[in-house]
Please model this.
Amino acid sequence: MSSKTHITLTINDEPYRADVEPRMLAADFLRDELALTGTHIGCEHGVCGACTILLNGVSVRSCLLLAIQLDDAEVQTVEGLGSTREMHRIQTAFREYHALQCGFCTPGFLMTVQDILNTLPLRNDKEIRDALSGNICRCTGYDHIVKAVRSLVTERDKIANQ
Amino acid sequence: MKPAPFEYVRPDTLDAAVQALNHEDARIIAGGQSLVPMMNFRLVQPERLVDINRIEALTPIVQTDTGVRVGALTRHVEAEYHPLLREHFPIISEAMPYVAHLAIRNRGTIAGSLCHADPSAEWPLLAILLNGEIEILGGSGSRTVPAEEFFMAPLTTDIAETELVTGVFFPSPPASCGMAFDEVSWRAGDFAIVAAGALVYIEKNRFVNVRLVLGGVFDTPIRITALEEALVGQSANQDAIEAVLSLTTKDLEPNDDLHASAEYRLSLVHVLARRVLTCALERASS
Model:
């Protein structure tokens, strides 16, 4: 029952091969096997959003996914978003608007924001708050996160309207 | 919190899936958005997990002469944006944003939600409202169960452990039909305290057929047949709706729980029933 299965996948544009036990969660695989510890684990039952990653381009909870299910998949984690030297625009917006304090929830928020900017109109703050409601932050009170996202939405729509 | 060990099987075909399910303690994983939390908590510890995500036969959404057939593996987001469903069943894209959060909707499936059968979930309510037929496959062949008979109790359906849902068929409603969905929850993405869906057919300015289904107030989504029958034949206007609204709560005895008292639930039932009936009537009239 505990025998391992070989999987191949792409993470942040890099090819990976690994042998995984079927019961290993994708979040644990990223952190413990590959040392990609940017993906954080909060609740381990799909409620807090800290472990959000992109699977084949869309946001998913990596604690509700098995590593074995990543076979052939394309994964993006927060490490693929940007680095401290070259931050992604979403990351600089979070810095600009003080959209984080302790930072534990931030990787999940960043990945969620990437998906909602791609898929949702986010016409007002209520829609932004609803779209962020799957990620829990215990520090900021959300206001600054909403401001950061609002600035990104304005930028996105300006480019789209050009 | 980690799942207990299990054997993992990933069939590519329906035949192989049925074979894999022929086991003492096998569970199907589709989106896994309800199953994996239960496995993480070890409330569920299947010996074998049958992953149906690679079975292509479970994905298509197709139009037939009489309706639309939705494959079991259709993710909530796919259902929300699919042109065929938007055209024939706009209530589905109206209801989908209420299903948890985007990351859950990206992964969770229609069949997973139906088989999990949470009493306040959106898909079971929609399936009953839209007169859906659940297609089930097992070792002895396939069968179809009307949604109304599929849900038996909280988290309990008519499906056997060796069977899987392959799709849901939604019969086309008549053109003069209006539908509406609404729900109230504490926060966006939470389970509904009460959810309501209505379907209204009118002809010559009279109600010909009405369906009102509520979620979160009983063991399964429940049709309010007393109100439905009372509206048929009446003039299609708001006064007629107001006159029968008290029938909505007549036989309901919802439970108190941490989220809401029974009294509050009954008051929500009134508010939501009025909203969805009024909105469905407007849409049927326009």
